[in-house]
Amino acid sequence: MCLLSKSKILAYRQCPRRLWLEIHRPELREDAAGTLASFQAGHSVGEVARQIYDPDGKGNLIDVGSEGYDGAFARTQALLGKNTPIFEAGFSANGALAFADVMLPLRKGRSRVWRMVEVKSSTSVKEYHRDDVAVQAWIATSAGVPLVSIAVAHIDNSWTYPGGGDYTGLLVEEDLSAEALGRAAEAQSWVTDAQTIARKRKEPGIPTGSQCGIPYECGFQAHCRKHEPQATYPVSWLPRIQSRTLKAHIEEQRVVDMREVPDALLSAQQLRVKQHSLSGTTYFDLHGAAADLGPHKLPGYFLDFETIMFPVPIWKGTRPYQQIPFQFSLHRLSRTGKLEHQSFLDLSGKDPSKAFTQALVAACGERGPVFVYNAGFETARIRELAERFPREKRALLAINERVVDLLPIARERYYHPSQEGSWSIKSVLPAIAPELRYDALDGVQGGGMAMEAYLEAINTGTSSTRKEQLRTQLLDYCGLDTLALVRLWQFFSQCT
């Protein structure tokens, strides 16, 4: 019988095919950048959790990597006889194994019993966390652990870091004891069914669907889709598939191509994407775009931010997952057509927020439209800075009053088949200014890569030479973002 980890059991709960592939064809797995980032977030939150639940440092950490499974299980059993916290405690029973994030000893009469806490990097308890703790509780109790309670601890994103390494209050608990301990029969059935799938010689023929991204992004999607009909015009190109009728049609009829979707089920924007994708023609409401931009006279400013966020804050006065701007690029286009560029980038490793704020206020001046792409992002960051720095609040909010969003204009007035249903700046730019290429940039070519470059640059182990290389890459990337906005504005306003 195959010994299944808790993660394998939860993989089965998501999709039996995923479980089979994880066991028999793990080399086919291709995790997305977001999945890898979530792993790293979980690791950092787990480290802080050990500080929170064991402030005196008397607890014991099980390291399965160095101790092996048998060693980890054996040492866990030995530590259950002591009165100290255990981290990553390992249990095995009935063909399943699991490692508990936190085990805390309690007294019940003359007996020692245990409280389990599963630590999550999310900001709330998710539905799949309930399955998680049900499995965890069943394995632990089946292994003979006197478990009396189990909770999920998640991040409180309203908490503000006071500094000094004090993370008290970062985590909040939700007790799930009654629910988790009451689902033993369910958990046992999952393990039994998962074992049946694991023993199969042939890969289950389960088609791709909504389960591929819920609750986790499955790393086997590319493999599974290779064996399915390939659409010439994928239905995924249709933007904002939100109506129940359209969703139901796609799922029930297993629609993969836009040509299979009746026009009557589509919104005006979806119909436009379908028609111009199929015909290979460009849609451009030139006069409408020019009219949209007409009221916003030059000089104009074209602005873009780069931000970083941490599940565990590292700077005093910041919150978990707060988007902290560390860089901006600003192009200024005068009435005479003169184009100037300013930028800000702080790679000191200190909180860049105040210096960023002061530089932004100085660069944006006091009048003229501030063009952005997807205004909700920049304006939200500016409001947050205004709350943190009252002296600059008036000037910052005045910038927000001048913001003009180019994204709604692009969505409403323009579509090129090469966009494949997307209006991201990286999708629109090749159609209107093919000479401006993100893929020609050295190193940093996207927002996720910018975050990675920033983290590497502020790492104390990064050499000065490498840091300067990263600085150049970040400046080039963010500068291209705002130059792209200038070109987009020029393209849309060409008849004025």
UniProtKB/TrEMBL annotation:
Pfam families: DUF2779. Residues 301-424 form the DUF2779 domain. It comes from the Bacteria. This is DUF2779 domain-containing protein. It comes from Zoogloea oleivorans.
